[in-house]
Amino acid sequence: MLPAHLAERLEPNAPAPREGRFVVYWMRVAARATENPALDVALAAGKALQKPVFVYHALSQRYRYASDRLHTFFLEGARDVQQGLAARGIGYAFHLERPPAPAPVLQSLAQDAALVVTDFLPLQPLLRWDAEVAKLAPLWRVDASCVAPLWRFGERLGRPRAFREAAREAWARRVREAWRDVESPGPAFLPDLPFAPVDLPGADLSALVAGCEVDHTVSPVHHTPGGTSAGLARWRTFLETKLDAYARARDEPLGDGTSRLSAYLHLGHVSALRLAREAAGHGGEGAQKFLDELLTWRELAWHFCWHTPSPDSVEALPPWARETLQAHEGDRREALPSWEHLARAQTGDALWDAAQRQLLTHGELHHAVRMTWGKRLLEWTRDAKSALALLFDLNHRYALDGRDPSSVGGILWCLGAFDRPFAPEVPVLGAVRPRPTAEHSKRLEVAEYERRVHRPSRGRPLTVAVVGAGVAGAAAARALKDAGQAVVLFERARQPGGRLSSWREGGLRFDSGASHFSVKDERFARWARAWWQERVLAEWTPSSLGPSGGEGGGEGKRPAARLVASPSNAALVSRLHHQLDVRFGVTVGELKRDAERWRLKDESGESLGEYEVVVVALPAPEAATLVDPASFSLASRLREVSFESCWAVLLSFSSPTGVEWDLQEGGAGPLERVWRDSSKPERRGEGGERWVLHATGEWSARHLGASADEVTAMLLDAYVSATGAARQAPASSQAHLWRNARASRPLGEACVWDAALRLAVCGDWCLGRDVESAFLSGSAAAGRINALPP
Fold first, then answer.
1. What pLDDT sits at residue 476?
2. Alpha helix locations (H) across 350-507?
């Protein structure tokens, strides 16, 4: 059925095709329209079976580390695929998963297929997906990524020399042979599909990404666009101007001596077969070194992952490395920085932070620095397992070539894989090859390296003003700064707070805004775990709950943890402001768009500067008033979001109240929420009992014109009635009206974005009415801005 050059790439013992309507090529990591063995196997099989063939290509929003960066690169590549296949007369359907819950598209196609062909990647979750599809249809897996087909190696060869010798002959023959694409039978075929395919060439890719529930804090890398066209352009430049010097220039992080093609190889935007053939044809010392890296080291990693049950675990390390690392687990180590300090390059180790900054902003890490970066992390973690988990997390989250066998091999190398023991042993690493940052810093101009990696990937930073420095505004500013933009926040209050405001009354402190918050979305949860590690967050476990005071998790489910910041909820906003330029006590009174810039003025008409982009992170009614002169249509849309007001009363008592519970939510009468603020972590030592009362939106609306004293008296009576507290005069009291406290019905979109004006509006009211919603909305606003082309 298959010619020899295709048959050798098909996994041995592939199942026989069956009766079915078509052959489908499930495209994954060979996203190119030519020189694609998996595509050609599908075309050849379709011809032999006399069945039509089409390509199914999909992008889920549920894969681990899904982000604007990875989604954008994937979609850019898929756009080239669609155009290339159209030119060849091959049917192509691209499925972009977006909310709501996805339908089982591939399963539906597999049930009707005579054969499913896919390109092979020896890592999870693709191996698990393979097994699921194989239950529904005959599945043919094709090696479309390596020059020497994986299937020819029956056992694991763990050292480069042994692998090089075993594969030398296979490489030599294949780099001399031009690839022969299988002709398409035409015309282009597509069956009835259970989804609407996306027309990528005509689509706004940034808008597509913005509509997906992915991590919008990880920005696209503008200098490395995805796709075969971009990949081959980079290859031609390297081949013509840099390959000759590759052997001597590749190890210099401050130079530009590497090909920087690993991201394109990862998703198959370019063919390793083509690179190997053209490099061999070029010849010379540089080409020989390039071929050794492309063939020996890259394909060794693929071979290793295929023959290793858990290639991303400590068990994948050689026995000597596991033994020496375990023997040194008791060695003294430095305190582990929080995940946020690691991810956002804020550990204080200049070289490590610069390396992480290269990952964070540019989505790549020079191989000579990766070794130092990886080994250093072990000095902060309790054992190799913990270090490896963090290394994979940071690499796969930010690197464009992450989640690839080559990337896995590079990380394992840091802890001894593909290497030998070194003597004498050193603390922590034992016999694993050492690479201290202090020693590496002597050979590298760290200041120049820092300067280069801090430049944004778009080349020049955007100037951005963020109006409102609560959770949403701070989240937007953080993600913008991480992408290299120049950001200033303006906050009318004189201290951090917003929805997490804390009120001081003499020596007392009250959480006057949100009583607590919970975490449901992993995009917010990973940051919350870091703040927990830093002891910024703590769990509030009320000793008991009043009537209707529970947050049920459903039958058999544990209620979500109630989180608070310490020593007050405003501390979380302060943490979000870390290393940001926040101007407190400044009310932005005017936004005016002038040509290509925004001009901001305060309430008195004084200039606050000029900016290319503005983020308004205020409640929708206030945002509408501010943006109205610039965009009446946008302001009208914001005014459609209705808000409830909320009267809050803060009480302290010098004598015990006798109330037996700490929190009541959704009770009867005028009070929506009542809590003993002094029962929270790190609040008990502030003197007496302190209570916060939040009135319902309906009651607050009826009493908007009441005085603070009148509201205090009425809600104090309601508090005594609801709690059974001993009637006593409070030692202190304070009433505050939250005029725009919470959205009655959220907008239903992550943020509002006007690309022509370069104006984003965000807040918790976009997605919900809580802290997590505010964070995700601000992150989404940053995502729209970071996607702006250079």
1. 98
2. 350-362, 367-378, 384-398, 405-414, 437-442, 446-453, 471-482
Asked if residues 614 and 759 have their Cβ atoms less than 8 Å apart, the reply is: yes
Residues of the chain with pLDDT under 50: 551-556
Q: What is the pLDDT of residue 668?
A: 67
CA distance 65 to 53: 32
3-state helix, strand, coil in the chain (%, to 5): 40, 15, 45
Structure tokens that stand for 656 in this block: 């015990």
pLDDT per residue as tens digits for the range 588-605 = 999 999 888 999 999 999
Burial class from Cβ neighbours inside 10 Å (0-12, 13-18, 19+) for residue 325 reads buried
Please state whether beta strands 463-467 and 91-96 pair in parallel, antiparallel, or not at all (unpaired): unpaired
Is residue 751 a contact partner of residue 784, using CB atoms and an 8 Å limit?
yes
* Amino acid in position 609: G
> What is the rounded distance in angstroms from the CA atom of residue 242 to the CA atom of residue 277?
17
Take residue 506 and report the two structure tokens written for it: 């003499």
Neighbours of 56 (CB within 10 A): 26
Burial 23-44 (b: 16+ CB within 10 A, else e): bbbbbbbbbbbebbbbbbbbbb
Candidates 490, 677, 692, 502; CA nearest to 591 is 490
| CA-CA-CA-CA torsion sign (455, 460, 465, 466) | negative
CA nearest to 384, candidates 356, 412, 404, 346: 412
Which residues sit opposite 647 in a β-bridge? 737
Beta bridge partners of 594: 597
* Residue burial 358-378, b: 16+ Cβ < 10 Å; e: rest: bbbbbbbbbbbbbbbbbbbbb
Contact 88, 98 (CB under 8 A): no
Report residue 763 as tokens. Answer: 């807040």
What whole-number distance in Å separates Cα of residue 51 and Cα of residue 64? 35
Q: Which two tokens stand for residue 403?
A: 């989640």
Residue entry with tokens 């309430």: 603
517-555 in b/e burial notation, b at 16+ Cβ within 10 A?
Answer: bebeeebbebbbbbbbeeebbbebebeebbeebeeeeee
Smallest Cα–Cα separation from 649: which of 549, 707, 733?
A: 733
Token pair belonging to 565: 């910041």
Question: For the chain, what is the total number of helices (H) and then of strands (E)?
Answer: 29, 23
> What amino acid is encoded at 770 in this protein?
D
Tens digit of each residue's pLDDT (9 = 90 or more) over 649-658: 999 999 999 9
* SS3 readout for 151-194: HHCCCCCCCHHHHHHHHHHHHHHHCCCCCCCCCCCCCCCCCCCC
The H-or-E segment that residue 509 falls in is: strand 508-511
Give dist(CA 52, CA 142) in Å, integer. Answer: 19
Q: How far lies 671's CA from each of 546, 675, 676, 711, in Å?
A: 12, 11, 14, 12
Q: Taking a C-beta distance cutoff of 8 angstroms, is the pair 7, 54 a contact?
A: no
pLDDT at 153: 84
Q: Are 172 and 59 spatial neighbours (Cβ–Cβ below 8 Å)?
A: no
Sign of the torsion formed by the C-alpha atoms of 366, 371, 374 and 377: negative
Q: State the pLDDT at residue 554.
A: 45
